[in-house]
Amino acid sequence: MVVSFLMAQLGPWTRGETGFLLVLGSANISEGLRGYFTKYDCSAADINPIGGINKSDLREFLKYMAGEIELPVLAEIANAVPTAELRPTDPQQESHTQTDEDDMGMSYEELDTFGRLRKIDKCGPLAMFERLLVMWHKLDARITATKVKRFFRFYAINRHKATILTPSYHAEAYGCDDNRFDHRQILYDV
Question: What is the domain extent for residue 12?
Answer without folding.
Answer: 2-52+103-180
